[in-house]
Design a protein that fits this description.
Length: about 130
């Protein structure tokens, strides 16, 4: 089921959302000081391409630096990426087939707003935990 949802996701919006994150990452990497934001944007682009079967886990070692970085990210790029997720999610919820995709887009809004201090983990249903 995850494979089917991820394939539909990729065709119906995931690719374009990932391009948005890639553009943000490239811009952040060109401005040398914001390279950590670029790395986070590339990580989120990967997550945005194939979101079903993966989840975000808060890193225990993140601290004040991640919090301050997230505020700067929110002002510079996070708000328009979150807006992109919101608009895409609403458009996907118009059809019955697109409702799971639209809900996944809505769940990705916090990722777009605060990307630092989190990591992507695979969900393993057989073992009951993330790896």
């Amino acid at each position: 089921m995850r494979l089917l949802l991820n394939a539909i996701w990729l065709i119906c919006g995931g690719f374009w959302l990932a391009i948005g994150y890639l553009v943000a990452g490239i811009i952040c990497c060109v401005l040398i000081v914001t390279i950590p934001f670029g790395i986070a944007a590339f990580r989120n682009a990967n997550f945005c391409l194939w979101p079903f079967g993966r989840t975000l886990v808060k890193r225990r070692d993140s601290g004040l630096g991640s919090a301050l970085g997230n505020v700067l990210w929110l002002v510079v790029a996070g708000w328009w990426l979150a807006l992109l997720h919101l608009v895409t999610g609403i458009l996907q919820c118009v059809t019955i087939v697109g409702i799971p995709l639209g809900l996944a887009n809505i769940k990705l809004i916090p990722v777009a707003l605060w990307p630092l201090g989190q990591e992507i983990a695979w969900i393993d249903d057989r073992l009951g935990f993330t790896r």
